[in-house]
Design brief:
Two copies of one chain form a homodimer. The first copy, chain A, is globular, with a radius of gyration of 18 Å. The first copy, chain A, has a single domain, classed as P-loop containing nucleotide triphosphate hydrolases (Rossmann fold, 3-Layer(aba) Sandwich). Helices cover about 35% and strands about 20% of the residues of chain A. Chain A contains eight helices and seven strands, in the order H-E-H-E-H-E-H-E-E-H-H-E-H-E-H. Chain A has about 220 residues and is α/β, with parallel strands linked by helices. In chain A, strands 3-2-4-1-5-6-7 form a seven-stranded parallel beta sheet, with helices on both faces. Chains A and B meet through helix 5 of A and helix 5 of B.
């Protein structure tokens, strides 16, 4: 008797992520999953991106947090649609949470969806959400040794945004050494050096985001 | 027929943590579990603590990281015993990992054990290791809104060390508002304001650590 084996090729999360992607593709929405440690400036980057692109793209935001709506409240002041996911203790977003949040957003009226993941350099990497692109943010006060200690995220992302470059005079962070280290792990990664405080470098980042959306059609 | 229910009062992790604590108590070792986001300065605080207390206490360190030995290498330059735990992707330390690390340390010759947990504000809180005290580090460039977004850790700790106060002139961080917010969640918490870069505030912190060890016997 032959034994049939049906392999679960995709995990439950990845299956839902694929469905999310199909929904988002159908509406032509370019979706970026933004990951970082707590306090690297994910929300500030989202606010800057909205300011830079709001007249060229219709933008919405999904805010992922363990608790509270403080980030979503900030985003809401920009008058773009925003859905808050509170994970209730969980350390990362999952595709099912995003699915529910999509139900709260006017998908037919959107070009760009920015997802702010939970502040964590480890767990979010494992969970696809349905995004087109993964971006991580690192800030110079965190130090330039993070790729050694959290390699998985640096390998997984399409772009690394180095934030808080206005603080470079006051901390030890060797931008060239950092870039070289990350490129050794992920040769195709794009870098952006920005200050969400002063606005420096935001134009280049916004131009790249716009280009990603245009590539999508 | 009466059904007997045997409840698992402690999780497997907590049982091992309790055993770790018994071992450490037996040797009179005061153990501090240090938690923080990536890049808040856990290793720098440990290095400063060693410098401040090495002539008064016999100190060892357990370094927890997803990958690499860069932090343990730094600590080793101080010529104190150090055991590296690489979690291999896992986002927190567990009691069993600490148990193994204890086997690498000269317990009979120690007064103080500093455990650097994996850089993460969410997951480490759930896992007791056998420590006497839990301390969290937050750094001013991360912003003063973290207690809203990561409440569990602020509730769980005995002390909050506010690091990188040398950067206060360059970032927005309202120390009084932050302290008030945390005290509302955890009225018995101790605060320390330090700069591991300049050494400011380290004496007060080291004095407190010394006092914790003395209280233990």
């Amino acid at each position: 008797m032959k034994v049939s084996i049906v392999e679960s090729i995709l995990s439950a999360n990845d299956e839902i992520a694929l469905q999310n992607k199909e929904i988002l593709d159908q509406y032509g929405i370019c979706t970026i999953n933004i990951m970082a440690a707590p306090g690297s400036g994910k929300t500030s980057l989202i606010l800057r991106t909205i300011d830079a692109l709001r007249h060229r793209l219709r933008i919405a935001v999904i805010e992922g947090d363990v608790a509270s709506t403080v980030d979503a409240d900030h985003v809401a002041t920009k008058e773009v649609p925003v859905a808050q996911i509170n994970t209730g203790g969980q350390c990362h977003l999952e595709a099912q949470m995003v699915r529910r949040a999509l139900g709260e957003l006017p998908l037919a009226d959107l070009d760009l969806l920015l997802i702010e993941n939970v502040g964590n350099l480890i767990c979010p990497v494992e969970f696809k959400l349905g995004e087109d692109l993964n971006v991580m943010l690192t800030s110079v006060p965190e130090g330039d040794d993070k790729p050694y200690k959290y390699p998985s995220i640096f390998v997984a992302v399409d772009a690394v945004v180095i934030n808080k470059i206005d603080l470079l005079p006051y901390v030890r962070f060797d931008v060239d050494a950092f870039r070289k280290l990350v490129l050794g792990m992920n040769p195709d990664v794009k870098f952006f050096e920005v200050s969400c405080e002063t606005g420096q470098g935001i134009d280049d980042w916004a131009e790249w985001v716009l280009h990603q959306r245009e590539r999508k059609g």
